[in-house]
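Sequence, please.
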């Protein structure tokens, strides 16, 4: 029976996040953590002759959270611009996981039509040596997905 080798697991520190915010492409080095998930909408379908109902996929929605060091103003400026002009920012995120030591290859995901749910507009904390903020977001496109190599 085969077992995984500990070296095949993925080191979560080895990767990068690139963002395209209103046409400006930059490395999002202030992001400390990101998670994005897809939630499938389903309808339960009772079936005569079967004790268990079936399920019908109806659609999906994407959501996630970025934990960032509070050190840049890109998102705040974009949200202030939206408040003043009513023009929503255009945001795309590309998340790459690349732990060469795992032998698993690279995973790359590009999320499109990303919208920010909320953002800290100002922050101070006398007890916190390093300020951080949590930025929840939604997305409605997966523009690209390249997965890890199979074991």
């Amino acid at each position: 029976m085969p077992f995984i080798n500990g070296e095949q697991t993925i080191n979560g520190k080895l990767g990068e996040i690139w963002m395209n915010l209103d046409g400006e492409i930059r490395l999002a080095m202030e992001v400390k953590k990101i998670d994005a998930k897809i939630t499938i909408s389903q309808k339960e379908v009772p079936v005569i002759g079967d004790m268990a109902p079936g399920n019908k996929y109806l659609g999906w929605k994407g959501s996630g959270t970025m934990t960032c060091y509070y050190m840049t103003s890109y998102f705040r400026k974009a949200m202030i611009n939206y408040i003043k002009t009513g023009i929503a920012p255009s945001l795309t995120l590309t998340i790459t996981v690349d732990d060469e030591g795992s032998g698993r290859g690279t995973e790359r995901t590009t999320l499109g039509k990303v919208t920010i749910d909320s953002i800290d507009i100002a922050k101070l904390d006398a007890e916190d040596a390093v300020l951080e903020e949590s930025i929840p977001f939604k997305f409605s496109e997966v523009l690209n997905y390249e997965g890890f190599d199979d074991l």
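The first strand starts at residue 15 and ends at 21.
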